[in-house]
Amino acid sequence: MKAEIITIGDEILIGQIIDTNSSWIAQQLRKFEIDIVQMTSIPDTEEAIFNTLKSASARADLILITGGLGPTKDDVTKNTAAKYFGTTLIRDEKVLQHVTSFFEARNLEMLEINKQQADVLANCEILFNDYGTAPGMLVSKEQKNYIFMPGVPFEMKHLMEKRVFPLIAQQSKDIFIHHETILVGGIGESYLAEEIKDIEDELPSTIKLAYLPTLAFIRLRLSGKSKNSADILQEVKLFKSKLLHRLKNYVIADYDTSIEAFLIKEFTHQGLTLTTAESCTGGSLAASLTANPGSSEIFVGGTIPYSNRLKQQLLAVKETTLDQFGAVSEQTAIEMAAGAKATFSTDYAIATTGIAGPGGGSADKPVGTVWIAVAGKKEIITKKFQFNNDRLVNIERTRMNALLLLWKLLIKEEE
Amino acid sequence: MKAEIITIGDEILIGQIIDTNSSWIAQQLRKFEIDIVQMTSIPDTEEAIFNTLKSASARADLILITGGLGPTKDDVTKNTAAKYFGTTLIRDEKVLQHVTSFFEARNLEMLEINKQQADVLANCEILFNDYGTAPGMLVSKEQKNYIFMPGVPFEMKHLMEKRVFPLIAQQSKDIFIHHETILVGGIGESYLAEEIKDIEDELPSTIKLAYLPTLAFIRLRLSGKSKNSADILQEVKLFKSKLLHRLKNYVIADYDTSIEAFLIKEFTHQGLTLTTAESCTGGSLAASLTANPGSSEIFVGGTIPYSNRLKQQLLAVKETTLDQFGAVSEQTAIEMAAGAKATFSTDYAIATTGIAGPGGGSADKPVGTVWIAVAGKKEIITKKFQFNNDRLVNIERTRMNALLLLWKLLIKEEE
User: Fold this and answer.
1) B375 has which bridge partners?
2) ipTM of the complex
3) How many angstroms away from the CA of B404 is the closest CA of chain A?
4) How many domains does chain B have?
5) Are A154 and A14 within one domain?
6) How would you class A250 by CB atoms within 10 Å of its CB: exposed for 0-12, middle for 13-18, buried for 19 or more?
7) DSSP classification of residue A328
8) B272 and B404 fall within a common domain
9) How far is CA B339 from the centre of its chain?
10) What is the DSSP letter of B183?
11) Are B250 and B187 spatial neighbours (Cβ–Cβ below 8 Å)?
C-alpha cells in the first residue's frame, strides 16, 4: 500500500515548528510495509489544502493529514475538507462532552472556539482523542482513505496507535513482513558501509537494509517481505547472523533499541547502578537516560558540577588538580568520575568536562576540547575528543561518546 | 521572492531521521521576506529528484535542496543534478585537499567514496564546507537559483549562514522588512488569541502576526513589509506597543528570545546565581539552560537527586519528610529547593519532583502528578500540576512550567 503524509499549517512553512510527525508516522507505517511516496508541507489555505488532497489521492491509497485542527481562528482545514468531500460539519455531542469535561477538569473557562473542536465532518468516522480536544477523522472516498489528525505530536501518536494502526493491521494480512535490527557503535557510516558491502550486495530483492545513524551509533534494520512467512523469517535471520558475525566488534545489541535503553536494561539485568557527573554536557546525559521508563532502577541520580566550586563540593575534585591541570583535563575528569562513584556508592560513574563553546577556548584548549572519564568496578577509562562544531553539536557528541565509553567499559569488565 | 525546500533521501521517507533542516531554513528565510511555497521530501531516486527539481522551478525562484550528498553509495543526487543541468561532475582539487586534510586530522583512512565527496557539478559555484566533507553547490538556470547542501544540520546551517545568506541579502535590497517579537508566558494559545482578537483584526495587510507556541510559552511575531522603511517601522512598533499594553500581565520579553536565554540574561544583569534540583525532569531543565552560551555566568551547577537517598545526601531533605509525605509532595519539593539554595549558596533554586510515568502512579498520586518549588531571595513558591500525557511530555511540561515559575518569582522579588 502507498501512503502520503500531508502537513497542514503556515507554522511549518514559516519555520515556527519542526515537523516531527511525518518521520514518526513513516517509521511506524514501515512496519505495515506501507511505502511513503511523498511528504508535503502546505500552507493553511483552502486552495492549498483542496489541491493537495486531490493530487495526493492520485498517488496514494492512504492519505494522512496532520495539523490544521487547532483552536485558533486561522484553521480552515475542516471547512475545506467538508467542501472536498461534499459534506458538512456537524457538532458531535459525545466530543463536545469530552471537550467540556476536559476544560472543567482544568477549571478553565470554555470559549466558542473551544466548542468548535467538536465540529466534525458529517460523513467521517470519529477517531476519539483521549489526550486533547481535537478529534481525529477518518473519511473514505473512491477507495482512498483520508485520516485527519491534530498536529500536536502526542495527540497524533495516541490516535495512530489506538485508532489507526488497528485498522491498518486488518488490511495488510496477506503479506508477511519481518524486521531485524542491530545496534552498532564506534564505527562511522562510510566505514560500516564498506565493511558490509559484500553482504549488502548479496541481499535478495525481498530484503532491504536500512542505515539509521546518529552521531555515534547506527541502527541497521533488515526488512524482509514475502507471502511465505517461514522462508522470509529464515532468510532475514540468516543475513542478520552474517552482519552480527562481520560486525562483532561493533555490535551493541542484536535487537531494536537505543543505547540508553540498552544500557538501562543491561545494568538492571546485572543489578548495577550508575551516576553521572556532567560539566560540559550540562545534564543532557542524565536527561537522555531518565527519558526512559525504568531508569530509576539503575540511575541513583547525578550531578552537574558546572562551576569549579561545585566540582570540589560535590565530587571532592582537588583544588590543586583544578589549578595545575585545569577543569578540562584528564586528571579532573578522572577525579570527577572517581568522586561521583565513591560519593554516591554506585558501580559505574560517567564524567564529562569540556569547552562546548562558542567562548572559553584557548590556544592549547580550543573550543571542542572534551575529556570523558568512566569509572567502573575495576578501573577508570578516559578519552579525549577534539570536536569542531557548534555548542549544541559538541554537547551532543560528548553525550553520545560518553554512553559509548560506558558500554565499552561495561563489556570489558564482563569478560 | 518565492522559495521551495526539497529534502532528498529515503531516510526521511522511511522515518529514519526527522527533517529539522526545512523548518530552520524557512525561519531564516522569513527574515529576508522569502516565502516558502512548499516543502517536499522525496526519495533518493533519479526520477523523483529530476521531476521534483523541474516542478519546483515552476513554483519558486530559489530552490534549496538538502540531503543526498552523503558518502554512502545510495546517493544519486549529484549525477541526477548533472543530468538536469546538462553538465558533468568534475573532481575539485581544492575540495579534495580539504577532504584529505579532514581525514588526516582524524587519523582516518580515506576511502574512494570519501574522495568522491570532491566531485562537483562542472557549472556550479562551490559553497565551501568548513565543517564537513561534502561541499555545497550553487547553480543558476533560467533565472532560477538552485542550492545543493548536505543534510547534516550543522553543516547545512554553516553553509546557509556563511555562504548563502550574504548572496540573498544582496538580492532583497528593494523591500524593507521589520520584525518585532514578544515572548509571553502563562496564557494558553486560544486565550491569547481571544485576548488580542480586536488588535489582530486591526492589522493592516502590510503587517502579519505569527504565533510561535511551545508547551508553556508563546512568541508573538509582528512582521511588517513595505518599500517605505520609516512608515512600516513606526506602524509595527505601534501595534507592538498595543500588544505589550494588552498583555502586560503575560509579557516576559519585548524582543525575540527564549525563556532560557531571557532568564540567563536577566540573572546575569542582576548578578544572580541559580541552581537546579531535578527529580522528575532528570537533568533536562539544566540541559536546556546550559545549551545557551553564557549560562555558566549564572548557573553554578545542579543536582539530579533521582533516588530518595540522594535527595537526603545532596539536599538534606529530611527522611521524616519523605516517609510522611512521600518524594512527590509539596513538602519534599520545598526542602529540595531550600536545600539546593543553601547547599550551593545561590540566589535562586528550582526543584522538580513528580511521577513522569508510565509506572509509579497510585490512586492519590496518579502518573502526571508533579510538584515544583522555586526558592528565591525572600520566599519559596510552589505549584502542583496534574499532567495527563506520556513520560516525555510530562517531563517537558514540568521543565517549562518550572522556568515559568522561576520567572514569576523573579519579577515578584524585583518589585
Assistant:
1) B349, B380
2) 0.81
3) 18
4) 3
5) yes
6) middle
7) S
8) yes
9) 32
10) E
11) yes
